[in-house]
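Shipment paperwork, digital attachment
Item: protein structure file
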Amino acid sequence: MSRIHAIGIAVVLAAAGSAAHAAPSKDFFISFWFGLPNLAPQTVQRVAAANYTTAMISGSPEAIHAAMDLCGEYGLTALIVDPRITAAYGWTLLAEDPLKRVEAHDVPLAEVQSRIDAVVRDHAAHPALWGYLVTDEPCASQFARLREIHQALRRRDSGHVAFVNLHPAYAPPGVLECATYDAYVKRFVKMVRPDLLCYDHYAFLADGERADFFENMEIVRRHALKARIPFYFVLLTSQIEEPYRSPTEAEIRWQTYAALAYGATGLMHFHIPGILGSPERYAEIARINGEVKALGPTLMQLRSTGVFHAAASLPAGTQSFRKSGPLRAIEGGEFIVGYFRGPRATRYAMIVNRDFNRPATARALLAPGTTPERICEKTGQAEAIATEPVEKGVQMTLALEPGHGALLRFRERPKAAAAFVRANAP
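Attachment content:
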């Protein structure tokens, strides 16, 4: 998940039944890459204090079990990397030669199933277990075997996640083994029938930013909505190596809130050593995670219905802002506007400052009969937003720091809410 060859961060959802999708977690997922073996109590405590919900842990079966005990003590769940299922850069399924890495499709299925049996026996009953890492950044020729592994895990443990993370859009066709990235994601969903879609995309280079950040997110979101499964996003939080740079706090927040506007319900950070090893970066991550954690209970009740860009420049694959929702116009900068449907057809929107270098003041014209509230990113509670009459109706104003976003809820007449649902039904 770092560059094309490095392992990325992945995400998984609880599996259920050999054919049915697992029910997604009720909590917003916040984790990191990679699994740290033999976690000490003070390390787990720091992970929890940084507002993560799940720790990725690795090591021997005994070390994993001990680490899950610690996770449970500090209120965390665990995504485990058991070497009997997978190793960091490929499969390690041969007990007689643990250093020999064998691709999953080269290992007899019976051997894979035997290993899964052992892993499930050792870990499935632990109350802190969240899921199992299956693989990272697979190519299309591996999808058939991944389907078999998913089915085997679901038959043996229907309560935990089988975790796969996909390549980013900038992986070349030869790596994807598909002509396009859209075809790659489509084939993965059709063949593997995953519980969720997760991918990594590292946009911040030493000499600029990747141009396909939003196009990648559009593709994954579209396929997740069509399959009615969640999607998770792996973002860059530390410098990996050349050609990447270490993002600023505003750039990390920009990646985070862009994903929220697109409907992501899980985030992972690459990578944890760069976070725990820097007091300044640790404090930044703790702040941002705290915001997501406060918004999480509301976000988990929502379904994404549309994403638009209110800006002079329109990234590839995106849609220009239109006035069909609770906002009739928006100006004052460049913004991402994500629309959502909540309980009882309540309308929500996430407005994100698309500029990670400068603050912006969004002036948004409201649909008639609409009263906005902001879900506070510190408390998670709804707060009233001041509005003012203008020539064309009623306007609200939001001051947004670089890369920051605001989650809004709209109180309105039932007729207006029903019209929005019809207009934005996926």
